Amino acid sequence: MEAAGSERATLLAHGRAAQMALLFAATHPERVDSLVLLNEFARLSRADDYPVGMPAAVQASVLEGDRRALGNRAMATLLGPSLASRPGVRDWYGRVERDAAGPGTALAKMRAILELDDRQVVPLVAAPTLVVQNQGDTLVRAGRAAARA
Question: How many angstroms separate the CA atoms of 101 and 109, rounded?
Answer without folding.
Answer: 9
